[in-house]
Amino acid sequence: MLSARNQFQGVIKSVKLGNVAAEVVVQVGNLEIVSMITRGSAEHLDLKVGDHVKAVIKSTEVLIDK
Fold first, then answer.
1. Which of 3, 6, 25, 45 could form a Cys-Cys staple with 14, CB 3.0–4.6 A?
2. Which letter does DSSP use for residue 60 in this model?
3. Contacts 24+ apart (CB under 8 A), 14-19
4. Backbone phi and psi for residue 18, each to the nearest 5 degrees, phi listed first
């Protein structure tokens, strides 16, 4: 169990591997969450389009715009 309360079940829409980092887009309902993780982590997790994953968000700052 994680202490982060913002946990969202979603499906991987895309994975773009770079030399060092990977951009992972997770579809959560009608929203897309984009995460930059290390390429090593993406490979270790064997992330692929269509995988069901959990996006866990822990942040000290959340901006709101209206």
1. 25
2. S
3. 14/49, 15/42, 15/47, 15/48, 15/49, 17/42, 17/43
4. -105, -170
Angle at the Cα of 59 from the Cα atoms of 25 and 39, rounded to 5 degrees: 40
Q: What topology does CATH give the domain 6-56?
A: OB fold (Dihydrolipoamide Acetyltransferase, E2P) (2.40.50)
Residue-wise pLDDT for 11-44, tens only, equals: 999 999 999 999 999 999 999 999 999 999 999 9
| Backbone torsions φ then ψ of 45, nearest 5 degrees | -80, -10
Write down the pTM of the prediction. Answer: 0.88
Query: What are the sequence ranges of the domains in the chain?
Result: 6-56
Q: Per-residue DSSP letters for 1-52?
A: --S--EEEEEEEEEEEE-SSEEEEEEEETTEEEEEEEEHHHHHHHT--TT-E
